Amino acid sequence: MNEIKIFAPATIANLNCGFDVLGLCLDGIGDEMIFRKSTEKGLRITKITGADLPLELENNVAGVAGLALLDKVEIDFGIEIEIYKKLKLGSGIGSSSASAAGAVFGINELLGKPFTKKELVNFAMKGEAVASGSEHADNVAPCLLGGFTLVTGYNPLEVIRIEAPADLFVVVLHPHIEVKTSDARAVLKPEISLKNAITQIGNLGGFVAGLYTNDYDLIGRSMKDVLVEPYR
Fold first, then answer.
1. Which of 178, 181, 213, 229 is catalytic?
2. Is position 135 annotated as part of the catalytic site?
3. Which residue, 100, 154, 152, 107, is CA-closest to 124?
4. Shortest CA distance to 21 belongs to which of 112, 140, 149?
5. Residue from 46, 74, 128, 152 carrying the catalytic annotation
6. Of 12, 65, 131, 201, whose CB has the highest number of CB atoms within 10 Å?
7. Could you say which of 2.60.40.2310, 3.30.230.10, 3.20.20.140, 1.10.1740.10 is the CATH number of the domain covering 3-165?
8. CA-CA distance, 100 to 153, in Å (whole number)?
9. What does the pLDDT look like over 127-186, one tens digit per residue?
10. 49 an active-site residue?
């Protein structure tokens, strides 16, 4: 394989009660990326449309994620990336995650799939840190794995994929404002009360249980966040 075109889907993370641990993949909307081998060694982003983003690898989420992957392998060719952004920056549906996850997925395909999709999540998180200031998997994991994902641990990273209930739909309402992930994280408080922790744990458990049992009422009742949304 010398060239591949991929679709990197939009995602929604946190899902109200699952800050940094829950995410889902949206069907039908996302970015497109083209990867091709070149005789000139090294990784290069040669084209970006749809957004004013840097081509320099160290300043681009796709570039950082791709470099993290290539640091673990040895190849005798170069890779060029074209990015066609369809997701608005700061829209809350994983624009940066699509770039980071798409980059590692596409490169992995050109290399003959040396890494599993779950292993790719680690590399994609490196790119996410450029956009948000911290490595988190709640967007890149569902982008790579599909369906719902639950991050049960970060050290080491462990992600569980959960099938979406058949009749569950998502409505995305966009207020036409841009909120950077780094800004949204900056307003959060480092300490929480025991009462709120207990409430949040119960809601998170109820949400996941509702997914497994197709209990839509339980999913709805569990969507109460007492840790993050009050500050945002």
1. 181
2. no
3. 100
4. 149
5. 128
6. 65
7. 3.30.230.10
8. 20
9. 988 887 788 899 999 999 999 999 999 889 999 999 999 899 888 887 777 777 777 778
10. no
